[in-house]
Amino acid sequence: KEKPQVPAELLSLLATHPDHRGRGAGMALVADRLAKVDAAHEAAFLESTNPGNVTRYQRAGFEHWGSFTVPEGPTVDQMWRDPR
User: Fold this and answer.
1) 24-77 pLDDT, tens per residue?
2) Residue 45 backbone dihedrals phi, psi, to 5 degrees
3) In 1-84, which ranges are continuous DSSP H helix?
């Protein structure tokens, strides 16, 4: 699927220290960034190598756009969120 040709904010390199996972800190950071993206009426794009995050990002309004597998590496899910 081809992404729309609109300005988009790339959300990149989010990780939570293992001692703090499962407490909502990562998604709180995502929500904070998305508030700024929404204020600018821009789209958002991200890639994730953790399949468990796909549902989390869908709850934040992202749509699964596709995936690819890095040779001898992980599968990367691509997620898109339309401007709001």
Assistant:
1) 888 898 999 999 999 999 999 999 999 989 999 999 999 999 999 999 999 999
2) -135, 145
3) 25-39, 53-59
* CA proximity to 24, closest of 76, 50, 72, 60: 60
Widest CA span in the chain: 39
Instruction: Take residue 7 and report the two structure tokens written for it.
Output: 């300005």
Amino acid (1-letter code) at residue 38: D
pLDDT of residue 4: 65
Q: Note whether 62 and 82 are within 8 A (CB).
A: no
The model's pTM is: 0.82
Q: Which structure tokens are listed for 34?
A: 């998305």
DSSP reduced 3-state for 80: strand
